[in-house]
Every structure is written in C-alpha cells, then in structure tokens.
Amino acid sequence: MKFKINRDHFSNGLAQVLNVVGSKAAMPILSNVLIEAEKDQISLTTTNLDLGIRCKIKAEVKEPGTVTLPVKRLATIVRELPNVDVTVDAGTNHQVKIASGGSHFKIMGIGAEEFPKLPDSDDDKSFTLEQGELTTMLSNVAYAQSTDETRYILNGVYFNFKDGKLALVATDGRRLALVSKEMPVPAASAGAIILPANPVAEILRLLGKGEQLKIAFNERRAAFQIETGKDNSGLVDSIYLFSKVVEGNYPNYHQVIPKETHQRIKLERELFLQCVHRAALVTSEKSNSVKIKLTANLLEISASSPDFGESHESMAISYSGPELQVAFNPQFVMDPLRALTKDEVFFELKDEVSPGVFKTLESFVCVIMPVRLS
C-alpha cells in the first residue's frame, strides 16, 4: 500500500474517527484505525464493537492495500508533520513509513484481517432526512436522556417512525422532551429504535457538513450515511456511522404528557432563561430549586439556600389567572430553553404538584416534574 495525501485532509479525517476509540480497548486491534487505499481515496475506520465510524478522503493512491495503525498516536504525528504533502508507504510485517518534508516515521501496525467488519445495512428499513432538521430535533431532546445505568432503556434517544411522522423522545424519569416532524412513513418501513447516548453525541458532532443523511435500522442496529458536501475539508462522499441500539421496549411516553393544564403563559425565551439562570446562582446541592410565582401580569422567580442566601427576579407577562406558585429544578427549566432557538415559548401549569410543560408553536413538548414546596 502506498499513497500521497494532504496533511490537513488526513488530520481532519483522523479527527472524525478518533472519538470512537476508548482508552481501554478490549483488544489491541480496537485501538487502531483501519486504512484502506483504493482508486483515488483512502477510507479510515474505527470501532469499539458497539459503535463504528468510517470516513473517506481524497488521496493519490499509488499502490492499493490495507493496514491498521494506532489511531491516537497516528493522529498526533500527522497533525505535527512539517509539510502539507505526506507519503504513506506500508511494507512487509505491517510496518508503515510516513514521510513529510524532512520528517520520517516508521510505525508498527497490525494486519487488517484482524479488524472487525462494519455490518452492511442494505436490507434494513431506511429513511432520508435533512441534516439541519435532525440536528435541531436531536438538540431539542438529547439533554433529557438518562445517565442512570440501572435504567438502561432510558440511556438514549427514542426514534419512532410511525403514522406519517418521525418522533424523537428522551426522558430520565423526572423530565421528558418530545419533538416530531411530519414525513412519509410507508407501513412496511414503520419502526422504532433507541439510539444510545454516545452515537447521539457523535451524530450531533458530525451533522451539518452536508445536506442530507440516510438512516437505516433493524431491531439490533442503526446506520447513518452522512453526506459531507463537497467542501474543502478533504472528506469526500460521506461519513458512515454504525451503532448497536438499546434492546427493549421504550416506556409509553404519551402517558407522561398532561392531558390538561389550567394556565398557559407566553414567555420571551431568552429573557426567562436569563432570569432563571441568575436566580439559580444561590442554589446549592441541598436546596436545588427555583420557585416560579404567577400573579396578575407578573412572573416572579426566586431561590434560596442556607449556605448562600436568596435571589429574586421578576418579569412582566400577560396573565390574568389565579395566583400560583410552583418549584422546579433550575437545570430542568434551563435545558429546554437553551436547546430551543425560537424567541417565543409557552409554559403551561396546573398547580404546585403537577408537571410544568414547555411548548412551542412547532411540535415540541418538554414536561418537567415539580419539586415539593417546603
């Protein structure tokens, strides 16, 4: 195998696949990147068996071939090379020579035949989505995923393709975020998966370089083919991300969304976020709540803790209902406000023991459980 490549393109490609490799790989080969050179490109693949990623980069391939090299060490070396032109030459015994300007390295690799193959997704159910739309939808719900390992079913985002729409849901049992969009879903392609938190984070990192992506899935795995656009990053065609899915049945999230709330107020998102953020500055681990009080045309936000003291914020709103006071974990209030981009949000309340609900005019809902008022 021998090829010549632009240093920055090579470095960028390695950066795309680096995250998948854990610090403690189960087998030595899993610390390596599989490099395959053919025609006018090389492909770089890494996997930890649960998650795998492959990207392709333009290169001048003189001799096709394959090899695997330690990805973290390789990425560091490539990034530091002095010259834009880099030559990579794999000899016998998987020893690879890397040359750039006056720099010459020899790195020991492992044969490509030991590297686990990423599965094909040809027979799976598949859909094409706009990258920008999926980025927005994932950002709107991802913060609500559970990090509690004992509730593994909730450790991810639920994708539900059904009844002419895609719904994304995340919940940790104390809050739930849901966003949906209408799209054609043929009956034969309907289905749902729970995508674990790591692939969700990877997808959010990778999206936005091109226009579309294709998602293909079955009950055990999901694959994302992400177009990168013909930009100058040196990545051609696409990035391919494969992930195992969380196996099991996601809870019935429709039951969590309140059927009726008595009071609905329109809020300026950014202003409300700033008020809650400031009020929360005096909270502590033991006293981690902000009180929201509604009176005629006024919303007051207050917090207190024995360690730090008290805070009080107020903002004018349009409200003519009864006086109402309810308390929430400030993080649960701020997360959806930060994730949304529209200026206008609606906050619905019923009483001090019922959940609060954020909504937008689009199909976004976030339900947050209250904290008992002491």
Q: How does this model look, in words?
A:
- With 374 residues, the protein is of the alpha+beta class.
- The protein is 17% helix and 43% strand.
- It contains six helices and 25 strands.
- The chain has helices spanning 7-18, 71-80, 131-141, 197-206, 269-279, 330-339, and strands spanning 2-6, 32-38, 41-47, 51-58, 60-63, 65-70, 85-90, 95-100, 103-108, 125-130, 156-162, 165-171, 175-182, 191-196, 212-217, 221-227, 235-244, 263-268, 290-295, 298-305, 309-316, 324-328, 344-349, 356-359, 364-368.
- The strands form four sheets. It has an eight-stranded antiparallel β-sheet with strand order 6-2-3-4-17-16-15-10. The chain has an eight-stranded antiparallel β-sheet with strand order 14-11-12-13-25-24-23-18. Strands 5-1-7-8-9 form a five-stranded antiparallel β-sheet.
- A hairpin with a 7-residue loop joins β16 and β17.
- It is elongated, with a radius of gyration of 25 Å.
- 36% of the residues are buried.
Give me a quick take on this structure:
The protein is α+β, with helices and mostly antiparallel strands and 374 residues long. It has helices at residues 7-18, 71-80, 131-141, 197-206, 269-279, 330-339, and strands at 2-6, 32-38, 41-47, 51-58, 60-63, 65-70, 85-90, 95-100, 103-108, 125-130, 156-162, 165-171, 175-182, 191-196, 212-217, 221-227, 235-244, 263-268, 290-295, 298-305, 309-316, 324-328, 344-349, 356-359, 364-368.
